[in-house]
Amino acid sequence: MPDSRNKPMPLSTLLASHPVWRQLSSRGLESLAAQFSLQSVKAGCLLLAQGELPSRLGLIIGGEVRLDDPDLGQAVLLSAGQMFGFGVTPHRQLPTWQATATLDCELAWLQPPELQRLCERVPALLNFFPSAEVLQSESTLRARTYAGASGGLHLLSTPIKSLIKRPPISLPPQTSIQTTAQLMSSLHVSSVLLVEEERLLGLVTDRDLRNRAVAQGLDISRPVSDIATMMPMTVSASSPAFEALLLMARHNIHHVPVTDDGVLAGMITTTDLAEQQSTSAIYLAGNIYKQATLEGLQEISAHVRSLQKHLADADASAYSTGHIVTAIADALTTRLIQLAQLHLGPAPVKFVWIAAGSQARNEQTAKSDQDNCLILDDSFDPAQHGDYFREFARYVCDGLAACGYVHCPGQMMAMTDTWRQARKVWVEYFRQWIQSPKPKALMLTCVFFDLRAIHGEAALLESLRTEVLVHTKGNSLFLAHMVSNALKHRPPLGMFGTITLTKGGEHAGTIDLKHNGIVPIVDLARIYALAAGVTIANTHDRLELCAQAGEVSEQSARDLRDALEFLAKLRITHQARQIQRNQSPDNFLALEELSNFERSHLKNAFGVVQTLQGVLQQRYSGGRF
Question: Is residue 389 part of a domain?
């Protein structure tokens, strides 16, 4: 006789003992049980991110769930039998709270329309689901928002591992092209991984089979490694899904292997992101690489403002927004470089196109000009190669301007002869700036110490950076001049801690969030990075690494990161409101736009910057050098 002691209890039986659902008849319980979908999750799994609670109702069958607002630090623990999400969580908490499994959980999910229909049939249930009626119209609107323009931006917090659908499908690299194609066809997959001795060696996609094998008339008995992308880029399973989105957007790829502590865990594709209603960034980038004319690029770049607005509407972090918006600028730059080479021919010597300023830091917004330069191989001869690179740089810079990234007012662009030089000339530039830090040199230093390779021979930049940091790390005299220059940008706080507003001019009565809020933090992080020899350009990441290096305390770095996130998010939200009103976005915020709560946080953020500016000033004027 079969043992039924471990047989799970039917969901209808569990519902019958529940204080809410037992209001239904036996037939109603059986019908309801069929509407629920069951899920088993591990402890630590993010069940519903901020903004997703209205999307469904969750019933905890076993385990424990934490419902919390990470911004306010409020939380409540829910145990077996309790519910959360659509209809039951208080209306005021639904937009900002999130749900996480704190223990291994068994869950049952019910979609909002099913609950609404049930409440219509059994009105007494509304006593247990008071927000169901209120949310009916709002949930429809929110679903449209997240599934459409703003694209379900919960990918900003969803771990990549939650999107993996199956174990990795792999083959030895010597497998024939034909056998590989047959396997992909039988399993209905668009890619396979090439693995040998548990090491990932390559990736083959259906596009590779089409373009590199069939279109080239290749012998299908040859090893599939002949058409594979060897040593492909990977993402970590624990990383947020938006990192996969950025990787795909920047490199115009559609398949990325996922690793978990160095072990191959699976594959993520653009389709996986699309099914999760991802942001439109990856699709904008994909379309950019398809364009053959400047007009086509202009048409796509016009969507950047809308993208930023959708990110703001979805409450994305400033850190994530900066990376996503910058990814579009990177894609436009790369495509313009490709078009320039199609127009002018291949470059005569190796080069690398460099982004400077906010693009280098992955901190761009819809209001950004362009800062860039060209580092050329030392074989560059101005007489032989000068005309090519002059036309090349102008093509790209003018193209960026046409796409909304206006020419730098200070002419710090690759189209300016000074900033289009051989590597050895750049070495001399930095040597002069460091040894003779005059005001103009310090200004140039602030621009050109924030650099990131966009396209070309990245080793030209990396070797230059390594050489330069040798001369800045621990160079107290140079850093003292950098501090003095940085202190020209002060947070707008008066003697008694009140916020001082701009006096006179077009923006009278406002705060310049960029120059009086964000730039001072960027300057502090740059000085810490130069002192510590940190190579990364992003301000948030710089602060984290500089704290690890001991150049700034963990607490101070954390305070500055929080201040940066708050100020940058205010700026993004302010610009989103202007975009909504069809106004040109700027950096000038009126205090009337803020609540008393936000004003209090603004003062605190400015206070953090002011304090750490004072600490740095004292350090470099108190006998340290």
Answer: no
DSSP 34-78: HH-EEEEE-TT-EEE-TT-GGG-EEEEEESEEEEEETTTTEEEEE
Amino acid in the structure at residue 163: L
Last residue of a domain, one of 94, 129, 146: 146
User: 3-class DSSP state for residue 411?
Assistant: coil
* Predicted confidence (pLDDT) per residue in 358-401, tens digit: 999 999 988 788 999 999 999 999 999 999 999 999 999 999 99
Residue 74 sits in a domain of what CATH number? 2.60.120.10
- Please determine, for residue 151, whether its predicted confidence score (pLDDT) is greater than 60: no
pTM, rounded to two decimals: 0.63
Instruction: Tell me whether residue 126 is in a domain.
Output: yes
Of the residues 92, 112, 146, which one is the last residue of a structural domain? 146
The C-alpha atoms of residue 312 and residue 316 are separated, in whole angstroms, by 6
Say whether 99 sits in a helix, a strand or coil: strand
Residue 46 placed within a domain: yes
Domain range for 132:
11-146
State the greatest distance between any 2 C-alpha atoms of the chain, in Å, as a whole number.
93
- Closest to 331 in 3D by CA, of 290, 377, 382: 290
Number of structural domains the chain divides into:
2
**Each residue of 212-268: pLDDT tens digit?**
999 899 999 999 999 999 999 999 988 887 788 778 877 888 899 999 888 899 998
Do residues 527 and 481 lie in contact, with contact meaning Cβ atoms separated by under 8 Å? no
Considering the chain, what percentage of its residues have pLDDT values greater than 70?
91
Residue 152 lies in a domain: no
Residue with tokens 């919390």: 68
Report the distance separating Cα 620 and Cα 586, nearest Å. 34
Mean pLDDT of 126-135: 70
Element (H, E) at 458: helix 458-472
Q: Which of 273, 376, 291 is nearest to 332 (CA)?
A: 291
Residues 374/464, Cβ–Cβ less than 8 Å: no
Using DSSP, state whether 347 is helix, strand or coil: coil
Query: How far is it, in rounded angstroms, from Cα 618 to Cα 552?
Result: 14
Once rounded to an integer, what is the mean pLDDT over residues 2-14? 64
Contacts of 2 (CB under 8 A, 6+ apart): none
CATH number of the CATH domain containing 479? 1.20.120
SS3 content of the chain, % helix, strand, coil (to 5): 50, 15, 30
Phi, psi of 611 (to 5 degrees): -65, -45
- Give strand pairing partners of 77: 66
